[in-house]
Amino acid sequence: xxxxxxxxxxxxxxxxxxxxxxxxxxxxxxxxxxxxxxxxxxxxxxxxxxxxxxxxxxxxxxxxxxxxxxxxxxxxxxxxxxxxxxxxxxxxxxxxxxxxxxxxxxxxxxxxxxxxxxxxxxxxxxxxxxxxxxxxxxxxxxxxxxxxxxxxxxxxxxxxxxxxxxxxxxxxxxxxxxxxxxxxxxxxxxxxxxxxxxxxx
Length: 201
Fold this sequence. Notes:
Strand order of the largest sheet: 1-3-2-4-5
Radius of gyration: 20 Å
Largest sheet: 5 strands, mixed
Shape: elongated
Structural class: alpha/beta
Distance between the termini: 32 Å
């Protein structure tokens, strides 16, 4: 699967799952690999399609508002990578962080992006020792692996670039790094065939 799967790419794969499956099957069958390797690739394809469906069903691809302790626990434990922003409605920097996280949520479909009003979650705020807003917590497999407090690590300015936040989130592993030379047409490990360049004419 592409390391950086955008919402548009994920939706394209999920909308035409049968076509993707047929392309993958054709590519696997045409390969000269031994049968056990082809079968492993088929199983990997199915696993990745299931992961995409789960992400779609859990609301990935957008910055979602969560409320309450139970929803927080469910959101941070049902998917491997989660970014959670604790904010306050009256804080300008929280609105700025929401804007950047909304952009990143559309770019990193396999990570769930959520926000939670700190005033509405006193138990969680106390338990997670959140004292400064905005605070962004990064969860991997249900555990906090990193936190971004304020804007200090993002240049300490209000007009920081979304890429600065993206690199910071990549560093802790909550979102995937874009591979250099990554094939943007490869979805679920298989390339989309384009016959326009064919030498068969």
